[in-house]
Amino acid sequence: MPSYLSRPLTVLGLLFLSHACYSAYEHSTSIPHQPSNLASTPISSSPTSTSLPLDISLETVMSVIMICVGLVVGAEELKPITWRVWAGKVERESGGGGPFQGLEDRLGFVDIRAKRKEFADWVRDQDGENQR
């Protein structure tokens, strides 16, 4: 579908949607309401149905579909995102840091055994200095 039809299609969909809303309003006001004096109404009276007729519901759904199609067809074409172009731009703007600099600079896993050995060596050195 050509993009020059998007605006008329959207406007026509909005027109149909406003007509459907008006029809729903008219339908809701034409339903006879129960009298305000509840004491005079019989208990066995059945409530009136307030569901919309099928034509109003279909008009609403079709108008929303027309609006959606008109907006999608009229939207400008999406531009592809290239990861390396984006990352290069971000790094140039941030001065070489980049969005993942925090992940790259974080400490890796700590070697517990090596840390225990370093601590034990430090304790032995401290004990050796204290004994002198």
Automatic annotation (TrEMBL):
Record's signal peptide: 1-23
Domain of life (superkingdom): Eukaryota
Pfam families: MMgT (PF10270)
Subcellular location, record wording: Endomembrane system
Keywords on record: Membrane, Signal, Transmembrane, Transmembrane helix
Protein name: Transmembrane protein 32 protein
Organism lineage: Eukaryota, Fungi, Dikarya, Ascomycota, Pezizomycotina
Keyword ATP-binding tagged: no
Membrane topology qualifier: Multi-pass membrane protein
Main subcellular location of this protein, as a coarse class: membrane
PANTHER family cross-referenced by the UniProt entry: ER MEMBRANE PROTEIN COMPLEX SUBUNIT 5
A Gene Ontology cellular-component term: EMC complex
